[in-house]
Each structure stands twice: as C-alpha cells, then as structure tokens.
Automatic annotation (TrEMBL):
<feature type="domain" description="AB hydrolase-1">
    <location>
        <begin position="13"/>
        <end position="250"/>
    </location>
</feature>
<dbReference type="InterPro" id="IPR029058">
    <property type="entry name" value="AB_hydrolase_fold"/>
</dbReference>
<dbReference type="InterPro" id="IPR000639">
    <property type="entry name" value="Epox_hydrolase-like"/>
</dbReference>
<keyword id="KW-0378">Hydrolase</keyword>
<dbReference type="GO" id="GO:0016787">
    <property type="term" value="F:hydrolase activity"/>
</dbReference>
<protein>
    <submittedName>
        <fullName>Alpha/beta hydrolase</fullName>
    </submittedName>
</protein>
<dbReference type="Pfam" id="PF00561">
    <property type="entry name" value="Abhydrolase_1"/>
</dbReference>
<dbReference type="GO" id="GO:0016020">
    <property type="term" value="C:membrane"/>
</dbReference>
<dbReference type="InterPro" id="IPR050266">
    <property type="entry name" value="AB_hydrolase_sf"/>
</dbReference>
<dbReference type="InterPro" id="IPR000073">
    <property type="entry name" value="AB_hydrolase_1"/>
</dbReference>
Amino acid sequence: MPEFKNDQISSAPVVVALHSSASSGAQWRTLAVDCAGQMEVIAPDLPGYGQASLTRDISQKGVAAAAAPVIELIERNGKPVHLVGHSNGAGVALKIAMVRPDLVKSLALYEPATFHFLNHGCSIDRALFRQISRLAGLVSVSLAFGNPDRGMRAFINFWNGDGAWESLPDKSRNKFASQARSIIADFNGGFAESWSLKDLGAINLPTLMMSGGRSPDIAERVTSHITSAFRDVRTEAFPALGHMAPVFNPDVINPVILRHIARVEGADAASSARMRSAA
C-alpha cells in the first residue's frame, strides 16, 4: 500500500502511524521528522486516501477491510510495531490490536472515531450515536444527489468547528468533496463493527489515550469509554486543543507520543536485561 516513511534504521523501533479520515499518510510527516535517527516511521495511506485505492477486500467486514493492508505491511516488516492512530486511524489501530496483538508493541491513540458501541449504551450514548449517524447520512445523501460539498461542509465543521469549511480555499474544498465516498466507507466500516467495550479488556498492551478539551462531545465520550476498558493505559488531555490536534498541533502531540514509545522501549530493554542477568 502507498506509504510515507522516514529514513530506515534496521535496529530502530518501528512506528506505524495511521491517519484520520479525509487525510493521508503525509499527515504524520512531522512525526517522521521528529523521530529521524531514533525510530523508523511508516505512515501508510489508508484505503481511499492519498495514493491508496478505495477498493477493499469484500470478504473483510467492518474495519477489518481497512486494517487488512496495514496488517500485511506490519507482517512484511518482520517485527512488532508501535501503532499510532488519530480519529479513524485510531479505530483501525484498535482493530489491529484486537485481531493481531502479536504484531503490536504499544498503542498511542488520539480520540478514536469508533462509535458503534454507543448505540448499546445509556441514553446519552445513544443520543450521540444518532448524532453521528445523521452526519454520516448527510454525507451519503449529499453525494448521492450530486452535491458532495454539502455533506463535507457538515463533516468538516463538525470536527473542526463552525466556519472551518467556509474558511477553506476552493482547492481544499474540492479536495475534501472528492473524498466523500471514502468518508462514507469509513463510517460504514465503523458502524458495522460488533465488538464491545468488554472485549477491549483483552488487549494487554501499553496504551496512551489522548484527547482534546475542545473536541466534539462524542469524541470525549468515546475516548472516556475506551480508556476505562483498557488494562494498561495512560492518559494525556490537552484542554486547549481540538479533535484535529495531531494535524494542527504536532509540536504538542508528537513529543507526548515519543515519550510514550520511549517509555515502552525502556521497559522492554530493562526486562531483557533482567532476563539475561537471571540466565
């Protein structure tokens, strides 16, 4: 699959960074630069974005269709990786950790766009699920009627704040409108998932969960639920930042991700040293 990566160092830890919807692997370019000389960063284009075709394996259901090419990439790499994900990419990272935990050393997730379980929650959860379902429906109907701009305007303003779409130049609006079909595929894949929050308790990986204080309510709700479900989790809150902080504020987010990975690598090194000493 098409991907962006920094210079490879064979002995270095490998980070696979998964982008949000309406983005591409290039979203993580700054992370790759920040990691240069310390870690290898691979940032693939998820299906329907960048240079990656939207065509998916129809035998794969739900988010598994987007996760499959990433799993293949990690298998080719030959060793477990640190998975980093933002929004939809964080949802894909979760799926990979659930089905192939052997391929993952740690998780660093910023506000996973994973909504299906809300429909089985309390009244607040269900109301938020209806809200995101309406947004997905608007994107789909607008595309069907030949006016993708209308749906994407709602999508961009929902995640970035009112007026975000209106502030964009025409070139950017046209680019986002061209991605409406990919956005719909992301929504449909996520809504088709069936795992429960209880299932996340089986993931025994060092996990960093990040969230912004200016994100939509549903992002905060989902992040809180998922955080509570994990066994080994640290949290980082950014009160002044929103849902798109990994894109717009990498100078704040990336150092937190790197500290998390360094902590995991340090713990692994210490464990290996103890094992050698015992032997």
